[in-house]
Write a structure and sequence with these properties.
mainly alpha, globular, about 250 residues, 8 helices, two-stranded antiparallel ribbon, two-stranded antiparallel sheet, about 65% helix
Length: about 250
């Protein structure tokens, strides 16, 4: 019984800084949303007025009307980056990249399913902003960015996976910090015609907590696991992505 109490106290002690930082960032984003209410350049919450633009995006999924040659150029850059990391035997970096990218694809599939079921996705990309829309919420360019986001951000991590910073594991701290950075940047994106939120309850705070934190936890925690566990994680995630795409696209769901 004493051991259980000790473990519980240790769990609570380790969790408090994480919860405190996450709540603090949420409060910061909320205050920013109050201060920035009505701003033309920064959007903190969705707007039903965007539905007309979301309709255009839904109609343009996998259309080639806006195709241009940046599609090929950007793909070549990504191949070069992955090839260089493999040549340098940065396998942990590759695992970080594929972990985040796989989770990202699961989210994009879920977002597209929500759009199919409810009429509008949680996030949408506009056809004018991209050479190709893969799914309603992700363009070719955005997807390629996420394909290397885990790799790029993992290079900032301390070498010691157990080192604590601000009372918490550095991997978790960096995951929360990167999630906050991406969520704040998305506030700007939502203020452009390229990226749309239509639901008034969806915005920077839920994006930070429910989307970007899991992305970066996958990128920063999985590479430190045993190699067999890494392989299992990637096999399950990417296997699920492949199965869902192979079933849902032909059915017209996404």
């Amino acid at each position: 019984m004493d051991m259980k109490k000790t473990d519980l106290k240790r769990f609570i002690a380790n969790s408090l800084p994480i919860v405190g930082l996450t709540v603090g960032i949420c409060l910061f984003l909320f205050l920013l949303s109050l201060l920035g209410n009505g701003n033309d350049y920064f959007v903190f919450w969705g707007d039903p007025a965007n539905e007309i633009f979301a309709d255009a995006a839904n109609a343009a999924v996998r259309s080639t009307d806006h195709f241009n040659w940046t599609f090929i150029a950007l793909f070549a850059v990504i191949v070069y980056i992955y090839g260089t990391e493999l040549r340098n035997k940065n396998y942990k970096g590759i695992v970080a990249a594929l972990s985040l990218y796989g989770v990202h694809w699961l989210y994009e599939i879920a977002n597209a399913v929500i759009g199919s079921a409810a009429g509008y996705a949680l996030w949408t990309v506009s056809p004018e902003s991209t050479s190709f829309i893969l799914l309603v919420g992700v363009s070719w360019e955005l997807s390629l960015m996420f394909s290397i986001a885990g790799l790029a951000m993992s290079k900032l991590l301390p070498d010691d996976p157990k080192k604590k910073l601000l009372g918490m594991n550095n991997r978790i701290l960096f995951a929360i910090a990167n999630a906050a950075f991406f969520a704040i940047f998305e506030i700007f994106l939502a203020g452009t015609p390229a990226f749309l939120w239509t639901y008034p309850w969806w915005g920077a705070i839920p994006v930070f907590v429910t989307t970007y934190i899991p992305f970066f936890l996958a990128a920063f925690l999985v590479p430190d696991l045993a190699v067999k566990t890494q392989k299992r994680f990637l096999a399950v995630v990417w296997g699920l992505v492949a199965v869902l795409l192979l079933i849902l696209i032909p059915l017209g769901v996404i």
